[in-house]
Write a structure and sequence with these properties.
Blueprint (H helix, E strand, L loop, with lengths): L2 H15 L2 H13 L9 H33 L6 H34 L1
């Protein structure tokens, strides 16, 4: 195995696992129950900017997950069972993250069109 293949494998694993850290933190914060606040002044502007950043973040996450899946599919090796297991599990996590993002986008779009 060359150094380039090893680096590609490590980057692919990092790309596939990275979105889970903020996702789990965000879910934890969401269940704590944030205080209800009324948005006025700069808060309303910040909400618009935050929405823009969310869409950019979702797009970057989708691109990162797709790249990770491609790199992980190319990293399978017949003589390395542990690496194949980690690659397969990481591909599964990446696919699950893409499914969750797709569901989130669908729900947001559906709710905004039919509310």
């Amino acid at each position: 195995m060359t150094d380039q293949e090893q680096n590609r494998f490590l980057w692919a694993v990092a790309l596939s696992w990275a979105p889970w850290v903020p996702t789990l933190i965000g879910l934890g914060i969401a269940f704590v129950g944030p205080a209800n606040q009324k948005a006025t002044g700069l808060a309303a502007l910040a909400a618009g900017i935050a929405e823009l950043l969310v869409w950019w973040g979702l797009a970057a996450m989708v691109v990162g997950e797709v790249i990770a899946i491609v790199w992980l599919c190319r990293s399978f090796s017949p003589d390395r069972w542990l690496r194949n297991f980690v690659s397969g599990f990481s591909i599964l996590l990446s696919g699950l993250m893409l499914l969750l993002v797709s569901f989130l986008v669908w729900v947001v779009w559906f709710q905004s069109r039919h509310a």
